[in-house]
Write a structure and sequence with these properties.
246 residues; alpha+beta; Protein Transport Mog1p, Chain A; 9 strands; globular
Length: 246
């Protein structure tokens, strides 16, 4: 196998491993902007969604005509339910990047109430969608810690395989939900002068005590983007779910 073919194969394997989905127009980001959070009273009135309520809150064709939603993961029923768990800062070096590293995996340092993970979007342009329900104010803490980490985190290694991530950069915060953060970074294969970098984009939006995390990855030399229609549709569903009195 030639070096060129070997490197392309390595990139393809990496993309499949981290849930590569096709890219197109969407949230491209830019300079980060600040966003006011909701009032304390509004936040406290938001429902903490159960595992079943999260599963019911996943966007479908009624919310976004033409959307395709596919189950992934090895969680409950093998469709990506209950797959998110609290992460440890010791898994990331430097540790100040731990909130960023966790967000790439749609997780945090806090134990969730429940979680749902799917591949969602239209044919040819989708993203990994993860909904995570937290207790009390933990969801707000996740967003705040991620926002703080993005101010100083520029790159890190994570996991047992010491995967290398570089070029971490905060982008425009999303307008949906009660608060949110967006960023981009690159997974570096074969670190060095001849490295191969896979662009990744992540959007994390808080809806009360529930987080919606969107992630997409693209091939080297292209720009990863997340479908804006998917984000808008899922945001409407979650807003209704968390701010509606049972």
């Amino acid at each position: 196998m030639s070096r060129g073919i070997g490197r392309r194969h390595l990139a393809a394997v990496a993309l499949m491993a981290i849930g590569m989905t096709a890219c197109g127009g969407g949230h491209d980001g830019g300079a980060p902007t600040a966003k006011a959070t909701v009032s304390r009273g509004t936040e406290q009135s938001a429902r903490v969604l159960s595992q079943q309520q999260l599963e019911d809150a996943v966007v479908d064709a009624h919310d976004l005509p033409g959307v395709q939603v596919n189950g992934i993961g090895a969680g409950t029923n093998g469709v990506g339910n209950g797959v998110i768990h609290a992460t440890r800062h010791t898994n990331t070096n430097p540790s100040l990047c731990a909130p960023v590293s966790a967000a790439v995996d749609a997780a945090s340092g806090y134990t969730p109430v429940g979680s749902v993970q799917r591949i969602a979007g239209r044919k040819g342009h989708s993203a990994i969608l993860t909904l995570v329900s937290y207790r009390s104010a933990d969801a707000a803490r996740v967003i705040n810690e991620l926002r703080t980490a993005l101010k100083s985190c520029k790159g890190y290694t994570a996991g047992p395989m010491k995967a290398t991530y570089e070029d971490v950069e905060a982008t425009n915060g999303p307008p949906q939900g009660d608060d949110g953060v967006a960023f981009r970074l690159k997974l570096t294969m074969e670190p060095g002068e001849d490295s191969l970098k896979l662009p990744i984009r992540v959007i994390a939006i808080r809806h009360g005590s529930t987080l919606a995390i969107y992630k997409t990855t693209s091939t080297p030399g292209t720009s990863a983007s997340i479908p804006s229609d998917l984000v808008n549709a899922q945001a409407k569903v979650l807003d209704a779910a968390v701010h509606t009195t049972p």
